[in-house]
């Protein structure tokens, strides 16, 4: 059983950021509004994700580490229409097969004064105990790949693994700005956002942009908003004076999925071509809503690239939307 889990892990758990991604997505699926991600040594030694989501009782907890024990597929139709982000009940057993794992959980509104803590060894439950913990879930992953030398060998320096995690979390902070995140690396807070979509979604997003790209970018934001028939683009671009030497400050989400898009980079370039010169790029955090049949997400296996059915129209609309944001600013 552990071998099967290790094989599954081989497909999805490549490096520390893969673990972070699976655990954070579970926390979001659980309805968390506050998620803390803590790592040590780039995640090689420790990855700890705590959430204030729905939590699990002792019975759910015992089940969640069994392969394919997802709680997210209730009918066969769900298989074809997976709305949650998790893949089907493999993440926890897969991670557990290549690490030492502990899960502490307490369901919301639990009548019990204690939480349940499960210790796993080689993806099997080693023991469980009652502990004191708040409502929600904490998953602690230690010594990732310690038992899989071939994998361990391929990990890069702690600094590199940390930067992969930071990149992933930065994008998530922007796409799910409603949630408050804290990212702690070797005891120091590396990134933190306040969440709070319920209060003001625009403010939550501007705060998240400030947390990820710094206060200079956040202070210069111009609102982008263009709504067409079955297409919309919204978000922010920075002032033409607040630019960077790379495109790393330009991120795009299509139907809330982070994508890499040279087409959209060029659309932003075209919008600012008379305002920004010489290899400089404004910050841009843009959300594109488009009919699902207008976009093909299966271009790249990791689904980081998409193909638009009418790429010229998309290009023009994004260019016009960004252009408009600068115009309303100049007036
Ligand atoms: P999947 O996300 O595809 O269902 P996972 O292996 O990631 O598979 O998780 C298995 C199950 O464990 C989930 O379906 C969910 O019921 C439960 N679970 C995992 N993480 C959490 C969490 N942070 N809060 C509440 N329940 C969780
Ligand atoms: Mg999952």
UniProtKB/TrEMBL annotation:
Residues 209-327 form the DNA mismatch repair protein S5 domain. One of its GO terms (biological process) is mismatch repair. GO terms for molecular function: ATP binding; ATP hydrolysis activity; ATP-dependent DNA damage sensor activity; mismatched DNA binding. It comes from the Bacteria. One of its GO terms (cellular component) is mismatch repair complex. Keywords: DNA damage, DNA repair. The keyword Lipoprotein does not apply. Belongs to the DNA mismatch repair MutL/HexB family. This protein is involved in the repair of mismatches in DNA. It is required for dam-dependent methyl-directed DNA mismatch repair. May act as a 'molecular matchmaker', a protein that promotes the formation of a stable complex between two or more DNA-binding proteins in an ATP-dependent manner without itself being part of a final effector complex. This is DNA mismatch repair protein MutL. It comes from Termititenax aidoneus. The lineage of its organism: Bacteria, Bacillati, Candidatus Margulisiibacteriota, Candidatus Termititenacia, Candidatus Termititenacales.
């Amino acid at each position: 059983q552990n071998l099967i889990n290790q094989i599954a892990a081989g497909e999805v758990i490549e490096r520390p950021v893969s673990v972070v991604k699976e655990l954070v997505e579970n926390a979001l699926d659980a309805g968390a509004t506050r998620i803390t991600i803590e790592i040590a040594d780039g995640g090689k030694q420790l990855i700890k994700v705590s959430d204030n989501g729905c939590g699990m009782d002792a019975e759910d907890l015992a089940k969640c580490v069994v392969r394919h024990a997802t709680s997210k597929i209730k009918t066969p139709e769900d298989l074809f229409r997976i709305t949650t982000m998790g893949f089907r009940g493999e993440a926890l057993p897969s991670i557990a097969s290549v690490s030492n794992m502990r899960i502490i959980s307490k369901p919301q509104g639990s009548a019990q004064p204690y939480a349940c803590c499960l210790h796993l060894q080689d993806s099997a439950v080693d023991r469980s105990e009652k502990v004191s913990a708040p409502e929600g879930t904490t998953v602690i992953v230690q010594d990732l790949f310690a038992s899989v030398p071939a994998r361990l060998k391929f990990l890069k320096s702690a600094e590199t693994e940390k930067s992969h995690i930071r990149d992933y979390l930065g994008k998530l902070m922007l796409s799910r700005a409603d949630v408050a995140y804290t990212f702690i690396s070797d005891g120091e807070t590396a990134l933190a956002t306040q969440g709070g979509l319920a209060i003001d979604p625009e403010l939550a997003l501007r705060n998240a942009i400030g947390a990820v790209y710094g206060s200079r970018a956040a202070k210069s934001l111009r609102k982008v908003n263009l709504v067409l028939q079955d297409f919309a683009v919204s978000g922010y671009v920075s002032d033409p004076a607040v630019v960077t030497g790379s495109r790393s400050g330009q991120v795009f989400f299509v139907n809330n999925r982070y994508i890499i898009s040279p087409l959209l980079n060029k659309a932003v370039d075209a919008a600012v071509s008379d305002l920004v010169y010489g290899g400089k790029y404004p910050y841009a955090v843009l959300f594109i809503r488009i009919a699902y049949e207008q976009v093909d997400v299966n271009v790249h296996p990791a689904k980081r690239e998409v193909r638009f059915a009418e790429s010229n129209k998309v290009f023009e609309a994004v260019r016009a939307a960004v252009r408009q944001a600068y115009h309303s600013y100049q007036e």
